[in-house]
Fold this sequence. Notes:
Layout: H1 11-50, H2 54-57, E1 66-68, E2 74-77, H3 96-106, H4 118-131, H5 141-149, H6 157-173, H7 176-182
Amino acid sequence: RETKGDDRSSGAGRAGKRHFSRLARVALGLAAAVLVAGVAGAGWLAWSVRAVPDDMVSGKVTVSRSVIDRNGLLLRAFQTPDDRWRLAITPQEVDPRYLEMLQAYEDRRFRDHGGVDPRALVRAAVQLVTSGRVVSGASTLTMQTARLLMEGPTRSLSAKWHQIVLALALESNLDKDAILTLS
Length: 183
């Protein structure tokens, strides 16, 4: 003879199925919302990239005026009108080990992504949510270049969005070495 507490096949099983069913509906709803947001975001992003001014993605930036000696050695450089020091140099003129170290430290997948590294974005978001503070960033070298090209604040969510848009525009117009030249 069974007692009421031992009857696991009737009430408890149905409650478990109802709970799973509710959980499944919530998960499907969230997945649908993420999909809709992703599609809308992709459309907005495509529109935003087209709206980036041509002079920002042309690969031409103002460099510091320089005074060099007859042997080509730098004697003096002046700041650009935006108060920055920007010397005209190509990646071929830099020690290759420096570029390797820069990419290893700042953006390991620089040669593999299109300006934004989705894995880094997910990692940084998970760290932010789990720790409640920014643990590490997700900026690629292209996004850092975009930040240098932009005027105004760089830490807000809006500024990060503009960096992403400009990074995608840079990547669609320039090769990786040209982006390193802009940095």
